[in-house]
Amino acid sequence: MRNSLVLMLLLMTALSSCHSHRRALRRQEAQCVEGSKHAIHKNSTEEYIAFYKNTAIRQMRKYGIPASIILAQGILESSNGNSDLARYANNHFGIKCTNEWNGKTYYKDDDKPDECFRKYTDADASFRDHSEFLKRSKYASLFNLKSTDYKGWAKGLKKCGYATNPKYPELLINLIERYKLQQYD
Question: What is the pTM of this model?
Fold first, then answer.
């Protein structure tokens, strides 16, 4: 009986300390988000590429979208995976909700206040959905291009309406050339 009591006390102490630790971590994360001197690690572009290049190559082989385009869009749209959309919704490509979207959602201000974005269980699901999203008829003309024609793809994405920024093609091309992403095509 005494051993059971001691064991129960130890277990309760451990659980309460874990709960306190979780609360402290949440407070620390909140402070970081609010801009205190405690910083959350921010991915560099090089880290993002190293982490997601194999995912982009797999998507290219399965769907025919250049890995360089996938990586450049991920870098640009998610700020190297550091954006709120990437961190809280695993959405690396800024894909908004559409009529056929049945999954979870995440709301944030974008072109308009409180817009609906797709929320994913993990980044791989975001990469997969991005590829499937580009297989829609709206983007069909892109698949007439070679998978090594990243400039054509960048310009075509803008022409097909993927992004509203008029400099979108140049931004993608600059990222591809600066980080030599075409080597993965």
Answer: 0.77
